[in-house]
Automatic annotation (TrEMBL):
Organism: Tetradesmus obliquus (Green alga)
Cofactor: binding comment: Binds 1 zinc ion.
Domain of life assignment: Eukaryota
Name under which the protein is recorded: oligopeptidase A
Occurrences of domain Peptidase M3A/M3B catalytic (ranges): 230-691
GO cellular component: cytosol
UniProt-listed Enzyme Commission number(s): 3.4.24.70
SUPFAM superfamilies xrefs: Metalloproteases ('zincins'), catalytic domain
Length: 696
């Protein structure tokens, strides 16, 4: 059976080890044909009731999302020419099925009748929320369009899907295309041993079999674990400039140029929004979020105002430190990270490299699972070998409560620049649902349990050592685990609003950003910060310096996020493509308010800004800041209860578990937040955590 590897017998754990690119087209086509028949049958017999409408729709959409999810996951972690070609071939048919569902007048009519009819009052709160979200999404999906308008809308959706994939492919290929082989170690002066080890390992995998960390040759790439140490540690200014220019202009020229794709995407999104009756794409995007354009921009302006002076001071401090240490002239774009790092080392006597040996991945995971046990009373148990994986480094775990499985997750931790896209993410394999069949061997009547994958791009193990993580990589792991917890810890049985489903996009970063705070909590950090060779705990004074350095350059960091969020909203609300001004001109104009240095004239960062051109964050990047207000305020509840009072921390942790993590999309996010915090959110905690209240 050709569909077999895509839809395995035990659908909860996909057969990742068996799926080949050649299965994708026939497997998806067979599935799509079946689903079209299922939609025909449902449209013909639909009843405006939960059993006659919502349940069959959940079965149908779940089968589609679960199977396409396998394909898109492998595209992200194990890309290949063959897989690209398969995705390109079948993607239009896949989009067409989504459009058919989103614009089905019989199904839309049934949802309206369900809301307006007598059955409405028999529904639970979660079920009502499902119906309301479906009604909203039908309208945003073009159900009310007729004739030519609907044809044009559908053509736009097809084009946008193709452009998004192309954008993403170009970024991966452009990142992969840059390779700099260095044979003279003096060119790499300042680079820490871990970076030299990684560069030699990259050289070996490129065919330089004899490469060693000490003798080279060394291969540098634009993959973040390779690029970032050069920008922060290499004394060789010409090398920093070369790498910076290559990184900031990725996918902006030649065959891989994303500039025309950006123009097309913006223009199509604007047209799509106007077809649906919105003034611009930002308003369409906000129609399904907590914020609206005015509220989002008000928040960004408040944060910009509170951080601008601090960011100016950050730059002046770095400039002064550079001048005092022999740097001549103004700092340029490829100098700032280097001198800021020297200043951080001088000010806090803190070197990332000295911290790494205390953050070996196995120990960090152990500590992460301990804090989850303490706060949420769950046990995470290794279950490697119990589900197929796509790569030998991938780990598999069970989340247990009271001795019984509650959820499962995969962890793919290391960077693989040849086949895996950059960044870190969490995605669902399957969600919790009482309607859908549980994994083989589950007790009768039990709901299907959630399965997640967490994907990171951290430093791989080098020369027989475990993966030694930077502190930022530790925070990233905690962040993705926060997302996974909201997916896995849900107690909602209605699949369409369980876990992260049905959670407004600008609230979805709450649990992930919340978890990052625990990296600075002393008992939590000391549960895993042990030297990987000696077992010695992180020295106390080092922890004190790490904590003190938390707000180092926080004005700069805040402003950077405000800039990304502002240009995103600007391009999607006030920019007109093809009117003579380029997106890069507009980026530079926005930067006059959101950057303390003049813009780099050749800055083409937008060409690799996958979040907004190939991810879910278009006119939504502000969500990181919006949700960080919520997450900082949520952590504030633990601070108020007293981080030193174990009983209070445990009680507050259980409350967070039973609201934010449990309720998923079954209630509006502002309601969930109030249930946890007892009031509306405030920006005070976010500004305080970033040391920006004083400046304000």
């Amino acid at each position: 059976d050709v569909v077999f590897p895509l839809e395995g017998q035990d659908v909860v754990f996909p057969l990742y080890d068996k799926v080949k690119p050649e299965h994708v087209v026939p497997g998806m086509r067979a599935l799509l044909a079946q689903l079209h028949k299922d939609i025909d049958a449902l449209e013909a017999s639909v009843q405006p009731s939960w059993e006659g409408l919502v349940e069959p729709l959940e079965r149908l959409t779940d089968r589609h999302q679960r199977t396409w999810g396998i394909v898109s996951h492998l595209k992200g972690v194990a890309d290949s020419e063959a897989l690209r070609a398969a995705v390109e071939e079948v993607q239009p048919e896949n989009v067409a099925l989504g459009l058919r569902l989103a614009q089905s007048k019989p199904l839309y009519g049934a949802f309206k009748a369900l809301k307006e009819g007598p059955a409405w009052e028999t529904l639970t709160e979660a079920q009502k929320r499902v119906v309301d979200i479906e009604l909203r999404d039908f309208v945003l999906g073009g159900v009310a369009l007729e004739g030519e308008a609907q044809e044009r809308y559908n053509a736009i959706q097809q084009q946008l899907a193709q452009l998004s994939t192309k954008f993403s492919n170009n970024v991966l290929d452009a990142t992969k295309a840059f390779k700099k082989l260095v044979t003279d170690v003096s060119e790499l002066e300042g680079l820490p041993p871990t970076a030299l080890g990684l560069a030699a390992q990259q050289a070996r995998s490129a065919g330089h079999d004899k490469a060693t960390a000490e003798a080279g040759p060394w291969l540098l790439t634009l993959d973040f674990p390779s690029y970032y140490p050069v920008m922060t540690h290499a004394k060789n200014r010409a090398l920093r400039e070369e790498m910076y220019r290559a990184y900031i202009t990725r996918a902006s020229a030649g065959e891989l140029d994303n500039s025309p794709i950006i123009e097309q995407v913006l223009s199509l999104r604007k047209e799509k929004a106007q077809l649906l009756g919105f003034a611009n794409f930002a308003e369409l995007s906000m129609a399904s979020k907590m914020a609206n354009l005015d509220r989002a921009e008000e928040l960004l302006e408040e944060l910009r105002d509170k951080s601008f002076a601090a960011a100016k001071a950050d730059l002046a401090d770095a400039q002064a430190h550079a001048a005092a240490n022999g740097h001549d002239g103004e700092l340029l774009w490829w100098d700032v990270a280097f001198w800021a790092e020297r200043l951080r080392e001088a000010k806090y006597d803190l070197k990332d490299e000295e911290l790494r040996p205390y953050f070996a991945l196995p120990a960090v995971l152990d500590g992460l699972f301990k804090v989850a046990k303490r706060l949420f009373d769950i046990d995470i148990v290794p279950a490697d070998g119990e589900a197929p994986v796509w790569q030998s480094d991938v780990r598999f775990f069970k989340l247990m409560t009271n001795g019984a499985p509650r959820a499962y997750f995969f962890l793919d931790p290391y960077s693989r620049p040849a086949e895996k896209r950059g960044g870190a993410w969490m995605a669902e394999v399957v969600g919790r649902s009482k309607l859908l069949p549980a994994a083989a061997g589950s007790p009768p009547g039990s709901p299907r349990l959630p399965v997640a994958h967490m994907v990171c791009n951290q430093s791989p193990p080098v020369d027989g050592q475990p993966s030694l993580m930077t502190f930022r990589e530790v925070e990233t792991l905690f962040h993705e685990f926060g997302h996974a917890l909201q997916h896995m810890m849900t107690t909602v049985d209605e699949g369409l609003v369980a876990g992260i489903r049905g959670v407004e996009w600008d609230a979805v970063e709450l649990p992930s950003q919340f978890m990052e705070n625990w990296c600075y909590d002393k008992p939590t950090l000391y549960s895993f910060a042990k030297h990987y060779q000696t077992g010695e705990p992180l020295p106390e004074d080092m922890f004190a310096r790490l904590k003190a350095a938390k707000t180092f350059r926080s004005g700069t960091m805040m402003l950077r996020q405000v800039h990304f969020s502002s240009i995103d909203l600007e391009l999607h609300s006030r920019f007109t493509p093809g009117a003579g001004e380029s997106v890069f001109d507009r980026d530079a104009a926005v930067a006059q308010k959101t950057q303390v240095m003049p813009s780099f004239p050749q800055d083409r960062f937008l060409c690799s800004f996958s979040h907004i051109f190939a991810g879910g964050y278009s006119a939504g990047y502000y969500s990181y800041k919006w949700a960080e207000v919520l997450s900082a305020d949520a952590f504030g509840a633990f601070e108020e209860a007293g981080l030193d009072d174990d009983a209070a921390v445990v009680a507050t942790g259980r409350r967070f578990r039973d609201t934010v993590l449990a309720l998923g999309g079954s209630k509006a996010p502002e309601r969930v937040f109030e249930l946890f915090r007892g009031r509306q959110p405030s920006t005070e905690a976010l500004l305080r955590h970033n040391g920006l209240l004083v400046a304000a």
